[in-house]
Amino acid sequence: RRLADAADVADVRRLAMRRAPRMVFDYVDGAAEGERSMARAVEAFGRVEFSPRVLRDVAEAPTAVEILGRRIGMPVVLGPTGFTRMMHREGERAVARAAERAGIPYTLSTMGTTSAKDVAAAAPGGWNWFQLYVVRDRARNLETLALARDAGMDVLVVTVDVPVAGARLRDVRHGLTIPPSLHWRSVLQAMLRPAWWFDFLTSEPLRFATVDGAPDDLAGITNLMFDPSVTISDLEWIRAAWQGPLLVKGVQRVDDAKELADVGVDGLVVSNHGGRQLDRSPAPLELLPHVVNAVGDRTEVFLDGGVRSGADVAAAVALGAKACFVGRAYLYGLMAGGEPGVTRVLDLLHAELVRTLQLLGAAGVAELSPDLVRLR
Ligand code: FNR
Fold first, then answer.
1. Is 92 helix (H, G, I), strand (E, B) or coil?
2. Which part of the chain is the FMN hydroxy acid dehydrogenase domain (predicted)?
3. Which uninterrupted H or E stretch holds 374?
4. How many angstroms is it from 117 CA to the middle of ligand 1?
5. How far is the CA of 279 from the centre of ligand 1 (A)?
6. Entry pTM
């Protein structure tokens, strides 16, 4: 019932803080180094100024849009997040089911803790996507892609902003290990959250579904496994191994966006990984119009980072995004209450989006345009 009382995503975040051990919450809530990228991504949405039209018929304000040739319920994609079963025992399954119910895509991460097959079985009617991190072992990448394809996943998101791990200082300070191991601090934190602790001890052991790394700190696994020598020419063999749409996530410059559009990717995700990689990188919302202007006629442009409300989604779509990826918003819901928690967040985003459209004088997402929004 607490979930039902949550009036916005910030309320859900506060619930998450009370349910999850501090080091788990901070793994989600934190970002790299001084956390300025994350703060600026959110702050850019705070500078949105809407310019509403009045006396329009907004009795109906449909939110459905078409992306990559398919209709979805609203312009929101649940982005890939690693180690999702740490947040709640149902993990990726709960998120995929909530996305299925909302009619929006869910992206399973290479660093996921549930296999592609199990995600597909949990949400057979959902539009399940897969996110690839290129690992050093090339054969392994092909096996991973085959598992995703065999599970019916047809959209591939290649994340390109992790040549090496970013420095997540909250995790360093907590001594967070993957999976969480028992030392005095983690035991103490877990004991303050007995429900989470009980779930953790009674559910299947936490481990990655597709990568194996000696359990250690996340940065250590990342730097051991990921290939930092990947270039744009690697998209060739990835493209050859994948039949469906291919998106590149982590674009932070207009010239890179142009190069990617030139090689014919189906979509770009303007993203700085939620501020978890290079700190002090551009705020995605500020960069978005420049990328849309440069390549929006050739490829679908998505925004990722800092989305905390349906009004944020409306602003990003008005500025040219096909849809927004969200990360933390749904993870707060997952930590606050499993699948119902994720559903609560998606319901909030949808209700906020509809209300914003109506107050803006836009009779649906299709009527959003750049003249309705400026950044102060
Ligand atoms: C992420 N993100 C991420 N991205 C990715 O491509 N692969 C991954 O495995 C992960 N893992 C991950 C874990 C956690 C806990 C978070 C919070 C984020 C980044 C994610 O997809 C997305 O880019 C950001 O979360 C977007 O920013 P917001 O919505 O969290 O502000």
1. helix
2. 1-376
3. strand 373-375
4. 21
5. 14
6. 0.97
Using most ligand atoms within 8 A of CB, pick from 230, 273, 342 the residue to mutate for ligand 1. 273
Per-residue tens of pLDDT for the chain, all 376 residues = 699 999 999 999 999 999 999 999 999 999 999 999 999 999 999 999 999 999 999 999 999 999 999 999 999 999 999 999 999 999 999 999 999 999 999 999 999 999 999 999 999 999 999 999 999 999 999 999 999 999 999 999 999 999 999 999 999 999 888 777 777 777 888 889 988 888 888 888 888 887 776 657 888 888 889 999 999 999 999 999 999 999 999 999 999 999 999 999 999 999 999 999 999 999 999 999 999 999 999 999 999 999 999 999 999 999 999 999 999 999 999 999 999 999 999 999 999 999 999 999 999 999 999 999 999 9
How many angstroms separate the alpha carbon of residue 173 from the centre of ligand 1? 20
CA distance 313 to 333: 18
28 in contact with ligand 1, CB cutoff 6 A? yes
DSSP conformational letter for 309:
S
Q: Is 305 in the pocket of ligand 1 (CB under 6 A)?
A: yes
Please tell me the residue having the least CA distance from ligand 1 atom 12: 81
Of ligand 1's atoms, which has the minimum distance to the CA of residue 109?
9
Sign of CA dihedral 105, 134, 267, 234: negative
What are the Cα distances from residue 358, in Å, to 7, 8, 54, 299? 19, 18, 10, 29
